[in-house]
Amino acid sequence: MTEALSEPVDAPEPTDDVTTPPVLLLEPAEGVPPVVVDEPGLTQLVDRFAAGRGPVAIDAERASGYRYSARAYLVQLRRDGSGSGLIDPTGVPDLTGLSVALGGVEWVLHAANQDLACLAEVGMHPGTLFDTELASRLLGYPRVALGTMVEQLLGVRLEKGHSAADWSTRPLPESWLAYAALDVELLLPLRDLLEQQLAEAGKLDWAHQEFAAVLATAQLPPTPRAEPWRRLSGIHKLRSPRQLAAARALWEARDEQSRRRDVAPGRVLPDTAILAAILAAPRSRAELAALPVFSGPRQRRLAGTWYAALHSAAGLADGDLPRIAANGNGDGPPPPNRWAERDPAAAARLTRVRAALAALAEAHTLPVENLLEPALSRRLAWEPPPAGAVEAALVEGGARPWQVQLTAAPLAAALIEA
To answer: Measured between alpha carbons, how far is 361 from 266 in angstroms, rounded to an integer?
Structure first.
């Protein structure tokens, strides 16, 4: 990528001409930068990026699906006048100095809510943000993956084969590093084009409010889920409190193993194996190990751990068993498909609310989930606020001013008409 690509006027125009294929990029314009692995290298990189100009593009690579933790295993940056940089946080785990050097600079990320937590772990906290994925959603693009957006707006195509790689691998292959460097190389020109389109659509202020909300949420301490084990895939197949107790015990045993070994839970014991063990109700460790989903050597080694969890759940008193949650996972209103049976009036309200929001979203060319958080619209329909209090309920529920302005009156009418 040449320096000119950072300027929107030089970016290729979007085209509908299917005979003109996008340019496939395999290498960064200036080559793959060396990976910073020690403090002297980090000091040089900080000085280089502090001397740059304009926004800074930032991305992070994790090992999702491989590791229990969500830590960053690579941080990549790009800024006009500074070039690109790659940092290995396992070698330099404290990037506070870099964050301070970029304190007054706008940070450009794609799907920032996926990376801000792992960046915070290494001391990086943006002051202002531009989220290219969120901007794309507000503009109504149907597919907002980074590769799709740069192909549509910049006329270039990225190889995305490494997006699900195990980034805890060391040493990192050169092709992975090229992929990581290209991601940030294209973020800055993409940001400029999206900002221009937001302004033309009258949505730039909406975007700024959304970016500020993402930052505010990232600064809050994470709220632990009350009963995270209820998110096991297939848990709806369990019909009794005793079976739910077994699911809880196996989930907790797996979580302890995963945390201790820093291995993704699904690689320690898949959800399918948990459900199979509960439904089979083995009466011994040998019966558990004989199940097909426990046939591997790793599962045989841990069969005693899993059977002990099942045995402990079987011995619980009735008063210690988890309840069968009416809402499926224990949080908030029940699933909408149960509303008609439990509360027909609430089901009617939800139908009206959804119709009103869908019409607004279509009129303003954006996804309905970005117009208003679905969980908030469900809460309003399940327990509607008093007449005249819809706007206050929206604000209390975290809706941004632009969302309140658009949705308060239609929602009030929908709740009353239902």
So the answer is: 37
CA distances in angstroms from 218 to 40, 90, 114, 213, listed in the order given: 30, 22, 10, 9
**What are the φ/ψ torsions at residue 43 (nearest 5 degrees)?**
-60, -45
Q: What is the phi-psi region of residue 54: left when phi exceeds 0, alpha when psi lies from -120 to 50, beta otherwise? A: left
pLDDT at 61: 96
pLDDT (tens digit per residue) in 178-202 = 999 999 999 999 999 999 999 999 9
Cis status, amide bond into 171, omega within 30 of 0: yes
Q: Return d(Cα 103, Cα 20) in angstroms, integer.
A: 41
135 vs 138: CA distance, rounded Å: 5
Rounded to whole angstroms, how far apart are CA atoms 279 and 302?
A: 19
* Threshold 0.70, pTM exceeds: yes
CB count within 10 Å of CB 406 equals 20
Residues whose CB is less than 8 angstroms from the CB of residue 54 and which lie 6 or more positions away in sequence, other chains included: 6, 79, 80, 81, 105, 106, 188
> Looking at the predicted structure, is the pLDDT value of residue 13 above 60?
no
409: left (phi over 0), alpha (psi -120 to 50) or beta: alpha
For the chain, how far is it from start to end, CA to CA, in angstroms?
A: 55
Question: How many alpha carbons lie under 13 Å from residue 63 in its C-beta half-sphere?
Answer: 20
